[in-house]
Amino acid sequence: MSKQPNAAPNINEQQLHIQQLKGELRRLQSMAALGELTGTATHEFNNVLMTIINYARLGIRNKDEPSRDKALSKILEASERAAKITNTILAQAKNRSESFEPTQLGEIIDSSMMLLEREMRNYRIAVETEIDPATPAVQASGNQIGRVLLNLLINARQAIVEGGTILVRLAPSSEAGWVELTVRDSGSGIPQESLPRIFDSFYSTKSGPDESGKGGTGLGLAACKEIIDAHDGRIRVESSVGVGTAFIIRLPVAVSAQAAA
Ligand SMILES: Nc1ncnc2c1ncn2[C@@H]1O[C@H](COP(=O)(O)OP(=O)(O)OP(=O)(O)O)[C@@H](O)[C@H]1O
Ligand SMILES: [Mg+2]
Fold it and tell me: Which residues form the Histidine kinase domain (predicted)?
C-alpha cells in the first residue's frame, strides 16, 4: 500500500479543481461587478428622478416665466443625465461577451466616472480626468477594463480620509504600441513592506465593507491583475505613505489602430 503511485494523479486532480474554482471565482466576480454597477446606476437614476419631480412641482407652483424657465431647464438637464445612465447600463449589458476588440478607453472612463460622481462628491473627493485625444484604441474587453477602473477608483476613494483628489489620466505610452492609463490618488499611501502583497488574493487591510458597502475582501487588485495579464498588459504601483498612490496600467494598442496610424 505505497502512497507513491497515487501522488501524481492527485496533484493533477487538485490542479484541475483549482482551475475550476478560479473559473468559478471569475464568473462570480463578474456577476458581482455587474450587480454593483446596476445597484449604483439604479441609485443614481432614482436621484435624477427626484430632481425631475421636484422641479416639475416647482414649475407648477410658480406661474411666472423665469421660475418656469428655470424648472424646465433643470428638468431637461436631469432627463439628459437619466438617458446617459440607462445608455451606460444598456451598453454594458450588450457587451457581455467579454471579447477583446478595439476599444476607446476614454468612453469607459467617462461612464465609470458618471456612475461614481455622487459617491465621490459625498466623500469630498475632486476627480480630474485627463484624456489625451490622440490616444489610440486598445485591444480590450471594455467590460473588463471598466471593472478594473471601478476597483481602482473605489480603492482610491477608500484611501482618502478627509477629502482629496483623484486623477485619471489616459495617454499614449512613451513606448510605441502601448497606451497608459493611470489612477492617482492623494490618499494614505501604501507602506513599502506591504507593496509586494497588495495583488495577492485575500490580502486586505480593511476591516470589512465601508458605509457604502464596499471593500474588505482583498480580491479587487487580484482581479485587476488577472484581467490586465489576460490582456497581455502590465499593471504596476507607485506609492508613498502620506502622499498617495498611483496605479499605472499599460495596454497594447489595437491592431486596427496601429494600421491606421
Ligand atoms: N489606492 C490605494 N491606496 C492605499 N492602499 C491601497 C490602495 N489600493 C489598494 N490598497 C491596499 O491594498 C489592499 C488590497 O486591495 P484590494 O482592492 O485587493 O482589496 P480590498 O480593497 O481590501 O477589498 P476588495 O476585494 O473589496 O477590493 C487594500 O486593503 C489596501 O490596503
Ligand atoms: Mg478594493
Answer: 40-255
Neighbours of ion ligand 2 (CB under 5 A): 155, 220
What fold does the segment set 99-260 form as a domain?
Heat Shock Protein 90 (3.30.565)
Q: Give dist(CA 182, CA 237) in Å, integer.
A: 10
- CA-nearest residue for atom 1, ligand 1, is 156
Mutate to test the pocket of ligand 1, among 165, 186, 204 (most ligand atoms within 8 A of CB): 204
Q: Is the C-beta atom of 198 inside 6 A of ligand 1?
A: yes
pLDDT range class, residue 1, cuts 50, 70, 90: very low
Centroid of ligand 1 to alpha carbon of 256 (angstroms):
35
Does ligand 1 lie within 6 Å of residue 216's CB atom?
yes
Highest mean pLDDT among 168-172, 212-216, 252-256: 168-172
Alpha helices in 160-188 (DSSP H): none
Catalogue the E-assigned strands of 211-261.
234-240, 244-252
Top pLDDT among 229 and 111 is at 229
The ligand minimizing its distance to the Cα of 183 is 1
pTM: 0.78
- Quote the strand ranges of 64-202, DSSP E: 101-103, 125-131, 138-140, 164-172, 178-185
- Backbone torsions φ then ψ of 96, nearest 5 degrees: -80, -10
> Hey, what amino acid is at 186?
S
Contact 103, 137 (CB under 8 A): yes
Span from the CA of 83 to the centroid of ligand 1 (angstroms): 33
